[in-house]
Structure prediction request, 230 residues.
Amino acid sequence: MKLDVTDPGGKRRRAIEVDDAVFGVEPNVAVVHQTLLAQLAARRAGTASTKSRSEVAGSTRKISRQKGLGAARQGSRRAPHRRGGGVVFGPKPRSFQQRLPKRMRRLAIRSVLSSRVREERLRVVTALRDAGEDAQPSTKSVVRLLEALGVERSALIVTGTPDRSAYLSARNVAGTDVLPADTISVADLLAHHTVVLTVDAVRRCEELWGGERAGGRPQPGHAPGPVGGA
Prediction:
């Protein structure tokens, strides 16, 4: 398939051929959902902690004798139903990491990129600024770029390699983030309305998730499996 390429001023320059295995697959919603949950879970610190009745401070002596007082039976002051007592089944430090196969992660990213193409929410640009512009960070250049592309909501700008100048230029633009293609995730893509890729980023995405990586490693004597399968 082909994608239109525009310059930083919003004018169409040409169309480039892209890998259908990355930008033209049938989106797998179930895999995207599972991948998103795993990535959001991995962001959790998992540091919440409470004390059980064996860990709180206080005497373990029985408050009152068992019988003869006409009152309910009582244990120690550490009992969960008493103020200052322990917590029943409270949280403890733990890891929320979920194991996710590489093929599922790759399929999820290809599914989101393909859905952005279908929804016309993916833009490809020759560069993030005109050739004659200063290479110093400039917020105005990012604002002009987004306006020229017709981006009115949040945007994720993807570069082929880490670009500190682009990051510094976009960090003060509300709802706009800049990431290299190697580090984008499903959570990052879904958190923004529009995805803006440079031509270098498109080629890097094809290297990371296209070709043999799209269908898994082919077995000897067998053709690769169909793209887009669960």
User: Anything to note?
Assistant: The mean pLDDT is 88.
